Amino acid sequence: MTHIRELVELVQQRFPAYEQCSHEQALTYACEDVVIDVLGSRAMAFAELEEWLQDVCEHEDLDMPVLVSTARRGHVAGSTDIERNVVCLRGSNPTVAIALHELAHVASRAETHDQSFRDGLVGLWRRHLSIEHAALLHQLFLQTELSVEAWK
């Protein structure tokens, strides 16, 4: 089994790939990447994901965002327009992790990847991806000195 220190090293190796991002955003993305590399994330056909996300939004008491599929090319996996409640996801088979990342922007009303966003993301992953995914993400946030609320 991989030790947490090895995973933190992987985060540090992945971090520079996000050179156009702020330090906080790059670390957040790198932590998510490592969790998904280790534990995976289910990809769904866009129509299936939309139906699943509707159920998530009902459970979370959120207005369902308008979902838009963007071209497969490019490096941006998703984006969110909080004011218009629109989520764009790349490709016809986005992953649950990416969809929940974008929904965390909607739920937290955070355009950045600040603590309120990270707290929301950990909670969404815990409830709708798996407790294992959420716990590892939370631990990586802590180990890379990204603020996040205490594990409950």
Explain how this protein is built.
This protein has 152 residues and is mainly α. It has one domain (4-143): 2-Layer Sandwich (Zincin-like), CATH 3.30.2010. It has six helices and three strands. It has helices at 4-14, 23-39, 46-60, 96-108, 115-128, 131-143; strands at 66-70, 78-81, 86-90. It has a three-stranded mixed beta sheet, with helices on one face. A hairpin with a 4-residue loop joins strand 2 and strand 3. The two termini are 25 Å apart.
Any descriptors?
152 residues; mainly alpha; Zincin-like; three-stranded mixed sheet; 6 helices; 3 strands
Number of domains: 1
The poorly predicted ranges are none
For the secondary structure, the number of strands is 3
Using the alpha-carbon principal axes, give the shape.
globular
How many helical elements?
Answer: 6
Radius of gyration: 15 Å
Largest sheet: 3 strands, mixed
N-to-C span: 25 Å
Question: Beta fraction of the residues?
Answer: 5-15%
The helix/strand order is HHHEEEHHH
CATH domain topology: Zincin-like
Kindly state the percentage of residues in helix. 40-55%
- CATH H-level superfamily: Metalloproteases ("zincins"), catalytic domain
